[in-house]
Q: What sequence folds into this?
């Protein structure tokens, strides 16, 4: 039994936290604590891929809301974030999409050691790709598999992309992913394969790893510019202090990590002082540079009763239970295409995501009959936002302002993507599955009406990053080894360190970042 003192204290058991708990405790000389605010990952819906949206607004979700978005008709957008072992990998859509080579080469231009060539081996270290592959790793802990049952509407979408002259990708995670493909998924035999399955289950029985759940870390303790431990509330609500002999590693995600730093007195003095927090280390970049992928959904009725609306039927449940196949193994977003708003762009700036169901209100609204969705995602927004404290109380959610569409060019590009998507819906291949527009999608309208619809209905694709940016300049929060600038014994390893959002999805880079961090620390 530990006396509350560890070599490494890891805060947050999302993908980064689980990777580090595994890699650091692999050395039996290290004593490691992994602390998670959420409960254990026991809900049945966590394992059933098509059920992910049923976890929204439950105790497995932080259930955040943004502040009013001036450019989105003053709406406060709902932001789910996983609050359980596995973090958001226990509630997400399982899409394994690393992004474009150019994403990481751009990081590498700013921070030595982070170019595509540098990070590729770390993606591959994570991956256990079943089946033939030229680009993925095949022996890592994280299973990445094909959909086991592809919806007929998804096949029609792929055919529509082909007919439109979009490139067919042999594998989605090629260095240049311009083109279309089915989505590879973090699944094994039709079941979600979360960070817990990949990295935590294999640590079972290690005496040098302590995992605490339902324990909210409230502050990092700092002494003379060194992190020496954390204060937390344990599952019974009692306060506890843990001591870190070597490092505290924050893996609490792009919302909670900057909140925790600010609660600990690390941040912009102009924000900390009014909140009544003593400034321990001025670091104005904490919470800034917030970026997210904004998505607009084209939703239409489907005249054929073949979509995932039928996923909860008795027949599909039997298929799932007996053969681990059928509609319940779908992640809904079964295929994607990466395209450009302007042909001469060096890399795609838009993603089209095909959903074999009407995805309205985050999948929480029962649709009126069968339908399909074509989501249009802005991959490289110019808009930037910020996470700030609402108060000095650690249980108060922070203020999340993504600043959606505050850069004018973002709306123009999104509209260009919607026009491309409309062309695909109107193709010969998809036409048999496309009926009338389904609310709130207005159907084909002029640019002005379309812009209004985007402002009234666009939603997050759940990819916040960037709030503790890696870099070498004054506003950067962590250095190229993910150590917090100006402090000792403190690292940040999660989506918040990404300097710029990738042209893909954000789970894969977080796993990669954590594998790299493990090497930095173990070295
Ligand atoms: C609904 C949804 C769908 C998504 N779909 C995809 C997808 O298909 N593909 C993809 O690539 N990405 C997807 N993402 C995004 C992806 O899951 C995240 O980018 C990734 O999980 C981020 O990892 P992280 O470690 O930064 O944070 P998280 O996964 O959010 O983990 C942070 C962990 O820290 C814990 N924590 C926070 N604060 C504290 C505290 N104070 N004390 C203790 N513990 C704390 C949290 O409870 C959580 O477990 C999706 C996300 C969501 C929410």
A:
């Amino acid at each position: 039994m530990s006396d509350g003192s560890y070599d490494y204290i890891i805060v947050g058991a999302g993908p980064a936290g689980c990777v580090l708990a595994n890699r650091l405790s692999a050395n039996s000389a290290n004593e490691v604590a992994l602390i998670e605010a959420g409960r254990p990952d026991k809900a049945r819906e966590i394992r059933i891929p098509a059920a992910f949206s049923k976890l929204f607004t439950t105790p497995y979700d932080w259930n955040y809301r943004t502040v009013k978005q001036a450019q989105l008709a003053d709406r406060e957008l709902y932001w789910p974030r996983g609050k359980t072992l596995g973090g958001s990998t226990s509630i997400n859509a399982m899409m394994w999409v690393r992004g474009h080579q150019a994403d990481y080469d751009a990081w590498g231009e700013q921070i030595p050691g982070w170019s595509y060539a540098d990070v590729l081996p770390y993606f591959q270290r994570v991956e256990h790709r079943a089946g033939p592959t030229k680009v993925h790793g095949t022996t890592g802990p994280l299973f990445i598999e094909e959909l086991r049952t592809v919806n007929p509407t998804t096949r029609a979408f792929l055919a529509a992309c082909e007919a439109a002259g979009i490139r067919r990708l042999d594998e989605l995670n090629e260095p240049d992913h311009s083109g279309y493909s089915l989505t590879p998924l973090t699944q094994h035999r039709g079941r979600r394969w979360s960070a817990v399955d990949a990295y935590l289950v294999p640590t079972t029985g290690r005496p040098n790893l302590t995992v605490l759940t339902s324990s909210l870390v409230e502050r990092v303790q700092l002494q003379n510019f060194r992190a020496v431990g954390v204060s937390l509330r344990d599952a019974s609500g009692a306060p506890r202090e843990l001591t870190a002999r070597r490092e505290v590693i924050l893996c609490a995600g792009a919302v909670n990590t900057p909140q925790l730093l600010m609660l600990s007195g690390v941040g912009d003095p102009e924000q900390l002082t009014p909140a009544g927090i003593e400034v321990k280390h001025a670091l104005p970049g904490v919470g800034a540079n917030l970026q997210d992928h904004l998505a607009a959904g084209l939703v239409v009725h489907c005249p054929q009763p073949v979509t995932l609306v039928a996923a909860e039927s008795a027949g599909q449940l039997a298929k799932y239970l007996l053969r681990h196949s059928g509609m319940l193994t779908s992640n809904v977003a079964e295929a994607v295409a990466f395209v450009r708003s302007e042909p001469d762009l060096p890399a795609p700036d838009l993603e089209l995501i095909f959903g074999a169901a009407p995805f309205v209100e985050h999948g929480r609204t029962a649709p009126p009959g069968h339908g399909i969705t074509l989501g249009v995602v802005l991959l490289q927004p110019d808009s930037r936002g910020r996470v700030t404290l609402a108060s000095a109380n650690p249980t108060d959610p922070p203020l999340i302002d993504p600043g959606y569409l505050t850069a004018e060019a973002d709306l123009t590009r999104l509209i260009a993507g919607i026009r491309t998507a409309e062309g695909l819906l109107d193709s010969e291949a998809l036409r048999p599955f496309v009926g009338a527009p389904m609310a709130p999608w207005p159907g084909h309208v002029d640019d002005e009406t379309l812009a209004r619809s985007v402002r009234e209905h666009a939603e997050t694709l759940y990819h916040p990053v960037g709030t503790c940016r890696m870099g070498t300049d004054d506003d950067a929060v962590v250095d190229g080894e993910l150590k917090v600038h100006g402090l000792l014994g403190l690292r940040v390893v999660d989506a918040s360190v990404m300097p710029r959002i990738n042209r893909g999805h954000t789970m894969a880079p977080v796993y990669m970042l954590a594998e790299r961090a493990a090497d930095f620390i173990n070295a």
Observations:
- Residues 408-425 form the longest helix (18 residues).
- The pocket of flavin-adenine dinucleotide is lined by residues 11-16, 35-38, 80-83, 87-89, 91-95, 97, 216-217, 251-254, 256, 260, 462-463, 494-495, 505-508, 510 (CB under 6 Å).
- The chain has a mean pLDDT of 97.
